[in-house]
């Protein structure tokens, strides 16, 4: 099959491209390079510049490359920014998806994989979040992902498109230093930034109802996330008419304190963390039940938190060579 990977120049998308091509699939990247980096796209994989809002360009690329499946990662992903700019997020993430689905159905492409997020769950009051746990997103970003799932499912049913929405939990790590995330909006890079800048890492609240009082999350290596896409793409490609919604996590909770302890041990920057006020909107615990993805795809995460932090640190040092000297 020939897969169009939207957002393939982004952090996760570049890993998906790598995993798909290593698995022998043909990949074409479609990206507007708003946050993506052209150099992440490997030689031999065509990079088509364009926005998901541009129907004419999408028609051209889908037909020009004989696309038979789409993996849609292109989106804006910053929770805080989505609170300030909801119209921008709805336009890019929901309208961009709607236009893409129009082009996909008009071209008769049969398979569609969508990047969703654990952000759709909001504040789940359960030990392990299952796909049927009620969704109550806490930010416009999470809303756009939930609305995106609805759009994908409804279009799949109406147009006979086989679909999968993958709800990633907390993604970290890199396959190689040059593919590392360049953003500093999640715990691991935020702690790297503080430590290498000579500041104490911050714990946003230690009075949560969790074993050590800090928030618990389900961290997953980006290489495992990418492999879940290969498994989903294969599942759709071989069995038409599917409608999958799957958690992509490890099913193991790790607290902010545990993460910071591991980060200081791995980086050698040993500075005690400072506890600050809670960050508004943070749920105490979000940990996936990963059973459905295992049953439907035969996929399971293989990498642990040590791998995530070590590989993310190698990427950080590459981007900030001065960090290694401390
Ligand atoms: N990083 C995470 O922790 C996380 C967690 C859950 C879900 N996700 C989802 O995974 C996907 C990829 O996230 P990422 O971390 O790689 O982010 P990223 O910003 O690195 O990648 C997004 C890519 O999409 C491109 N893009 C954005 N808007 C576009 C548009 N309208 N048309 C064409 N290209 C466009 C960007 O240039 C970039 O290359 C997103 O859909 C995000 O919501 C990410
Ligand atoms: O310097 C920091 C940075 C973060 N945190 C804490 O670390 C945990 C993880 O925070 P992140 O910002 O890395 O991740 P979130 O769990 O808030 O959200 C992330 O994962 C979600 C899925 O669960 C969505 O995908 C969302 O887009 C993505 O940012 C939170 O408890 C946060 O309060 C700190 O204590 N100190």
Automatic annotation (TrEMBL):
Alphabetized InterPro entries for the sequence: Epimerase_deHydtase, NAD(P)-bd_dom_sf, UDP_G4E
Pathway annotation: Carbohydrate metabolism; galactose metabolism
NAD-dependent epimerase/dehydratase domain: residues covered: 3-249
Record's keyword terms, sorted: Carbohydrate metabolism, Isomerase, NAD
Matches recorded under Pfam families: Epimerase
UniProt cross-references to Gene3D superfamilies, sorted A to Z: NAD(P)-binding Rossmann-like Domain, UDP-galactose 4-epimerase, domain 1
Annotated catalysed reactions: UDP-alpha-D-glucose = UDP-alpha-D-galactose
Annotated GO MF terms: UDP-glucose 4-epimerase activity
BP term (GO), one: galactose catabolic process via UDP-galactose, Leloir pathway
Transmembrane annotation, as ranges: none
EC numbers, comma separated: 5.1.3.2
Keyword Isomerase in record: yes
SUPFAM superfamilies the record matches: NAD(P)-binding Rossmann-fold domains (SSF51735)
Domain of life: Bacteria
Cofactor: NAD(+)
Family label: Belongs to the NAD(P)-dependent epimerase/dehydratase family.
Name the UniProt record assigns to this protein: UDP-glucose 4-epimerase
């Amino acid at each position: 099959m020939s897969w169009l990977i939207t957002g393939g120049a982004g952090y996760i998308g570049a890993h998906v491209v790598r995993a798909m091509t290593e698995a022998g699939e043909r990949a074409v990247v479609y990206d507007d390079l708003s946050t993506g980096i052209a150099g992440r796209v490997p030689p031999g994989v065509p990079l088509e510049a364009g926005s998901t809002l541009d129907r004419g360009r999408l028609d051209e690329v889908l037909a020009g490359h004989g696309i038979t499946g789409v993996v849609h990662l292109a989106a804006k992903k910053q929770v805080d920014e989505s609170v300030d700019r909801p119209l921008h997020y709805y336009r890019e993430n929901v309208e961009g998806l709607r236009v893409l689905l129009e082009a996909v159905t008009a071209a008769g492409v049969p398979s569609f994989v969508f990047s969703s997020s654990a952000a759709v769950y909001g504040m789940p009051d359960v030990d392990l979040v299952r796909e049927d746990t009620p969704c109550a997103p806490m930010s416009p970003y999470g809303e756009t992902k939930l609305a995106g799932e609805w759009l994908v499912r409804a279009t799949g049913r109406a147009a006979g498109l086989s679909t999968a929405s993958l709800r990633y939990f907390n993604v970290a790590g890199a396959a190689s230093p040059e593919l590392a995330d360049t953003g500093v909006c999640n715990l691991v890079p935020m702690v790297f930034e503080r430590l290498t800048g000579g500041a104490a890492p911050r714990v946003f609240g230690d009075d949560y109802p969790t074993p050590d009082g800090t928030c618990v999350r389900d961290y997953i290596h980006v290489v495992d996330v990418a492999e879940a896409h290969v498994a989903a793409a294969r599942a759709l490609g071989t069995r038409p008419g599917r409608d999958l919604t799957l958690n992509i996590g490890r099913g193991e909770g790790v607290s902010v304190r545990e993460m910071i302890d591991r980060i200081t041990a791995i980086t050698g920057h040993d500075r005690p963390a400072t506890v600050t006020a809670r960050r508004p909107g943070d749920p105490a615990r979000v940990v996936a039940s990963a059973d459905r993805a295992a049953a439907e795809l035969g996929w399971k995460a293989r990498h642990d938190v040590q791998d995530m932090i070590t590989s993310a640190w190698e990427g950080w040092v590459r981007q900030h060579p001065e960090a290694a000297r401390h």
